[in-house]
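Open question from group meeting: does this chain pack into something compact, or does most of it stay loose? Before anyone orders reagents, we agreed to write out a predicted structure and look at it together. Recording both the input and the output here so the notebook holds the full record.
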Amino acid sequence: MPAPNYRGLSHPYLEAKLPTLDHADGMGQFVRAGCARCKTIHLYRPADIKTVVGGDMHVFRLREKLRCEQCGKRDEMVVEFKTFLGNEMVGLVIRELVEIRTVKKPIWREKRL
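Structure tokens returned:
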């Protein structure tokens, strides 16, 4: 596994070998995302993350897409795929996607008549 400060800029052949959200979803894994600064950790289903980020990507590209909800930093995010055994699944709290809301924001400009 590469270092946590890896930015995902390697040869495309090597990046194609990294596990993606579809692979994790097929294997029953979860996405564990946490902020190294705030020490908050959340578990997500890979299909929900794929819906939010808009496509299938590997774990190192997810670091660029996710943001900490408390401090708002992207640089401090640590993302990994996590597999749990049967006895670890009891009482496991995961975040589930309910809906995606889009915010309409008007943009104005001044025009002289």
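Observations to bring back to the group:
The mean pLDDT is 85.
Residues 99 and 105 are 19 Å apart (CA to CA).
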